[in-house]
Design brief:
By secondary structure, the protein is of the alpha/beta class. The chain has 20 helices and 12 strands.
């Protein structure tokens, strides 16, 4: 077995997955909205389109049905391969306009309708397609096959699908199923920690399978480790996530890192591009393994980290908040263990960096208002009445946990595990620690539900929330969670003598 064939992910390094997830998801797979099932943009045409043009388009995109719409993109008919057989039997010319041979027997449902309504419509009317509309305009097409796919939306079936994927198309489908599963869990009220852990673990399996399919015969002789960074490195991915990854390899004999890097970068580029196709956008900041800056030998990573620690300026501190959450995903995990051991040892001899990192974290305050207002709203323009649930919410806990873990030499990357690990070593109050963890998870839950609602409405998800749109209970949860963040920061100030 080659190095690249050895994914190093030990059970002790991962947040435990709840065994009840499979059951809770499997009971209500048809509760998801039709918009969640749409895999591609709709294929449609006008009534004046010749049949031969319709057939050419269907063949080109690999679809089996063409929707016929009016000038306002409102569905008025449907043409399927079954209709093609019908007109062939009748001897109809392929020059015939689609409006003359299309079926007008169509069923439309709104984007927010649950999947079971589509299944019911197909059963009642003996049809194989339901058209999804948004304010009457065509949004997409749901087929019987799409509904059948819901039967495999569960952790175990998805794991099997990922392990048995034979092509990029299989992986793209699996990635869509992962997002659908996550959305279903949010709808069912599953705790945020379980959802983010599930998403991250399934995305790990997806990445591992990409390596197995894309790296066959290439670079298999190189002893390397693919590292996950940021939220992926912490097992805390939400419904809104891009790529943060890097490569670590041993110092080569003779020290020619550039030659080894030249072999690795094309493979890393391909992996990043496949992940992008699977729904994980390329990192806008370039924090990806295909960037030569983040494909480094062990010595180069140590030099890079040491430079950041000694400089301690704003850009370097920002880098630390991303890269110090590194973990091994694929390859030789012992390289990551060695790098982390060196980092903790180095920080013991240069404590001023932790002081600078703490000051940087304390500059970001909880979004709490004064006497007259519950919250401090910092949006601009149309988002003026919003706060950022990530930057001014969950990141407060993430940053503090990272600092506590680095100071205590805790190897964990997950926020809850870091807080518990540091609390044990420093004999901190257990009740206070659990309150911080609970507040963090509640904020994560609000983020997930906010992003889920935006997906359902067809909007691009973000982390900016208008508290006035919350019910009274959720407003109180948000406020109390931010208070816990404030108290966590106070504890951080006391521990580092600010």
């Amino acid at each position: 077995m080659t190095v690249l064939d050895r994914p190093m992910m030990t059970a002790s390094s991962q947040p435990a997955l709840p065994v009840t997830i499979e059951t809770s998801v499997g009971t209500q797979p048809f509760s998801v909205s039709l918009a969640d099932l749409l895999r591609q943009a709709p294929i449609y045409c006008g009534t004046e389109t010749p049949v031969y043009t319709v057939l050419a388009t269907l063949a080109k995109v690999g679809a089996s049905a063409m929707v016929v719409t009016d000038a306002d993109r409102q569905p008025i008919g449907l043409f399927t391969l079954h209709d093609l057989l019908r007109i062939n039997v009748q001897g109809t010319s392929l020059d015939t306009l689609i409006g003359q041979v299309m079926s007008t027997r169509i069923i439309t449902l709104p984007r927010q309708a649950p999947a079971w309504e589509a299944a019911l419509a197909m059963t009642r009317h003996n049809i194989h397609y339901v058209l999804v509309v948004d304010d009457g305009r065509l949004l997409g097409v749901i087929s019987g096959r799409d509904l059948f796919s819901l039967q495999r939306i569960g952790f175990a079936p998805l794991s099997t699908l990922l392990h048995e994927a034979k092509s990029l198309d299989d992986l793209v489908q699996a990635a869509a199923d992962i997002r659908l599963l996550a959305a279903t869990l949010v709808d069912q009220g599953v705790e945020a920690e379980k959802i983010t852990s599930l998403i991250s673990n399934l995305n790990d399996q997806l990445t591992l399978r990409i390596f197995q399919l894309e790296c066959t015969g290439e670079c298999t002789d190189i002893n390397l480790c693919w590292m996950s960074l940021g939220s992926e490195g912490r097992y805390e991915q939400t419904l809104l996530t891009d790529q943060d990854n890097a490569i670590l390899f041993p110092d080569p004999p003779g020290g020619d890192c550039d030659a080894l890097r030249a072999r690795l970068l094309p493979v890393a580029q391909r992996i990043n591009e496949v992940l992008d196709r699977c729904g994980f956008p390329l990192c806008k900041g370039g924090v990806m393994a295909s960037n030569p800056r983040w494909c480094l030998s062990l010595s180069e990573w140590k030099e890079t980290f040491a430079d950041w620690i000694h400089r301690s300026d704003a850009p370097m501190l920002l880098n630390a908040t991303i890269f110090f959450d590194f973990r091994a995903l694929y390859g030789n995990a012992s390289l990551v263990t060695e790098l982390r051991s060196w980092l903790h040892s180095y920080l013991k001899s240069y404590r001023p960096f932790l002081r600078q990192l703490t000051q940087h974290a304390l500059a970001n305050r909880p979004a709490l208002g004064g006497l007259l207002h519950d919250f401090s709203l910092n949006g601009v323009g149309e988002q003026a009445n919003t706060l950022d649930l990530k930057v001014n919410g969950s990141a407060l806990f993430v940053d503090a946990a990272r600092i506590f873990a680095l100071a205590a030499g805790v190897a964990e990357t997950n926020t809850a595990h870091r807080l518990r690990g540091a609390a044990t070593l420093w004999h901190q109050d257990e009740a206070a620690t659990e309150a911080w963890i609970r507040a963090f998870e509640l904020l994560q839950g609000l983020r997930l539900r906010h992003q889920r609602a935006q997906y359902r409405e067809g909007r691009t998800p973000d982390n900016r929330l208008d508290p006035s749109q919350l019910n009274e209970l959720d407003r109180r949860i948000l406020k109390e969670s931010l208070k816990q963040a404030k108290w966590l920061q106070e504890a951080m100030k006391r521990n580092f003598q600010f």
